[in-house]
Amino acid sequence: MYILKFHEIYKRPIWGGKKIGTYKGKSLDYETVGESWEISAVEGDVSVVANGKDAGKSLSEILARDGARLVGQHVWDNFGTTFPLLIKFIDACDNLSIQVHPNDTLARQRHNTFGKTELWYIIDAEENAGLYSGFAQAITPDEYVERVANNTIIDVLQFHHAYPGDVYFLPSGRIHAIGKGILLAEIQQTSNITYRIYDYNRIDKDGNPRELHTHMAQDAIDYKLYDNLKTVYKPCYNQPVMLAECPYFTTNLLHINSECKRKMTYLDSFVIYMCMRGSATITACNNTCVELKQGETCLVPATISDVSLLPTPDCELLECYIK
User: Fold this and answer.
1) Which residue from 212, 253, 260, 298 could staple onto 241, CB 3.0 to 4.6 Å apart?
2) Does the active-site annotation cover 196?
3) CATH classification of 9-220, choosing from 3.30.420.40, 3.10.350.10, 2.60.120.10, 3.10.20.880?
4) Among 196, 202, 262, 277, which one carries the catalytic annotation?
5) Proportion of the chain in helix, strand, coil states, percent, rounded to 5
6) 250-256 and 315-321: which strand pairing?
7) What is the pTM of this model?
């Protein structure tokens, strides 16, 4: 087995911009792109391998064939033939809707799918750009419905100014939105279930108001107040800095300027690397290797016990696996 790269799946929502192509160093065939799905097992949008002997095969095919050798035994036991994570880059040229995602229980009852817990890593943010995460004051479920109806729901949300390197962990149930002028990486459960709460009274390409899910979201929202919703971490060179650890994924930041070896045997999990800045040559213990450039993503199968990361100066990677 070898380190896998995949063809991107580009999404073009009405709020998309032009930064993803520039960030990746690619000339895209679209005027605007809002999302680049790097690794996906979402039905209808399953990633296709771009390199090596399995080029042209889908992630689902590879997983069905290789099972625990690809994802790790405990991941295989828990998720079977569904790859558990969706990996993205997002470019918000305009404000995204205020939204929430259901937890596993609610998502299973309503949609027969996983819930959606996610993490944001801010790659770039324009001056005064920001995002919403959590409530700024306590409200009841009934007041929530009233505020959506009278366009005042934003008044009770926490607004956070965004800066490169900021990290936000967003468990299912937390009300949130990405603001205009932000480019970020997103790691999330494999789910495409979003309850749109407020959308600035925008209309779609056909001239119709975008659908809201006010009452479905009412039962999904966590109404508790939380402080310090931005993840606090201390950057350091050449060793992993944990950004998030939860049942769905563990994510580390690797800021490296010299060769770095990562042992993976104890993880019993696949490992995903996303290159935030610079580039790195990733060589597996079986001497297969890939070059990972800024804006690229790769998947290291669980059967590979260790890798060597040889970076350009000042390289930043996100490292993700399931404990």
Assistant:
1) 253
2) yes
3) 2.60.120.10
4) 196
5) 15, 40, 45
6) antiparallel
7) 0.96
